[in-house]
């Protein structure tokens, strides 16, 4: 494991505030907001600042929401605001293409992340290969990772390493994990791959900070976290909380605490109407392990069919519904309505 | 350990929403607010609902804030709203007296808690003895418990058991603990006393849920939690989150999840302007291990003396400042100002 001269294990904190946070404000952050936060994070020594539409490069659309700025505009503004930190981008193959990746690299993106459903790492092969050929830093991330067992996750991560990924890891997209789940999965991945391992948490069960600490203790070397937890639903791991907690647990992040608190305060004032909290819908979707993007359709359809949305979430969880299976929401709601009648 | 017929370890969830939450709204909850939430918690099967001024019986005053209702009024309203749940009260000797305890019992309080600084359990002796003689359920709680080592806490808890306490435990008043700290302390207490052990968490480091799980795993049998985390500063352990998490970890609470979510939603709508979040001041006071009641005077004095309030918190933590030592804030701020000049 990478060590500082202090002998403490070194972690890379990866900050997707300006990408994941976009989910919480319908992708409308403007130039001054991006510039202000990116500058503050850079001043604090945050190693990687990720920016973009919540769903990544190329995703701005009527279907998932149009961003206020184009990818080109966001990357230009943030690159200028990061004299020291690396700039990160995220892409889901299908939403974005090789052309989007090439333009992100032209704009000075240092860290390029490709995401895929936890059992579909093969969808990253072409793009990871392309990035490897260009010599870029390319990371492969598995979404909704609680839906696969530790062995399967390790196998999918190994495959992404073979495709050319320079780091691999998992998203807890539903915020479903408890610390022992994270320990088990990160351990399996760390034992299987030879590149650094990434953990990205969500707070639906109030465990984002504890899960991130568990990941680091199990050998993850890249920890994702957002200022004030700014992110979809119940939010992400809270950056300015997890950094001093990790330091207290014996890890080194290289981040200046007071400058980080200043960045978080700025984020609180300028990026969000209010920090994320755990409401009952976020909690239930986390318990059920359902894709957080299902929230709005579940609430709409449950109301229309006169069924309890919490029952719909738990049933979708039992059926292992994945993103894209919005049709299943209607099926489940109709069945619950019939069962009741 | 107490077991249900399921064989799962049984926990008693103790809900101080209507007492600790009072700190977040200057003690102004009215009759309809108390009645509504208490009824909903009772319907969910929450075993104990605690009510009162944030600082407990007899504390309503100009110095710490006058409550909208008298102790008598609060206890009358909540008792009527709890056909099934026990009613709890809290008292800090000094603020409240034996006369307050007697009146609370006359109003039908079932669980009476006495709090004392973590090294001053002897202050509970007279009142615990008085309650024991009346045959009441009496609990002894150590505040600011991170300021004493596990052995000392166990000794103070044993003393309270000898005074007559039917349960004993610790408050993480500053929200300073990480899970291993809780494991170590609860284990020491459980190994020393023969009555049930209580844990009361705060969320300053984002660890309230994880710490409460650690406490239960170490053998605590009473876990405190508040709807939406409603409580002082960064808030308490979030009730509707910790209950299903504990159930998933193998514990039994006897609480109905949907009714609990309904109660939490009601609390969110009717008790608080917004749920607690972790702001930078709460985070720093948690890291420093400083009494959360110092927040306002620290901010005021730091501004007046032109020093960084974060430095003041960390220095107060180094000096092990305790509640009542408000004079120390001025001393520290002046010293920091001089050192800078």
UniProtKB/TrEMBL annotation, chains A, B:
- Keyword set, alphabetical order: Aromatic hydrocarbons catabolism, Lyase, Manganese, Metal-binding
Q: Where is this site: Transition state stabilizer?
A: 19
Concerning Pfam families, the annotation shows: DmpG_comm, HMGL-like
GO aspect biological process, one term:
L-leucine biosynthetic process
Q: Where is the Pyruvate carboxyltransferase domain?
A: 11-261
Q: Which residues bind Mn(2+)?
A: 20, 200, 202
Q: Which sites bind substrate? A: 19-20, 173, 200
Q: Does the keyword NAD apply?
A: no
Active site per database record: 23 (proton acceptor)
Entry superkingdom:
Bacteria
Indicate the family of this protein: Belongs to the 4-hydroxy-2-oxovalerate aldolase family.
Please report the name of this protein according to its UniProt entry.
4-hydroxy-2-oxovalerate aldolase
Q: Which organism is it from?
A: Sphaerisporangium krabiense
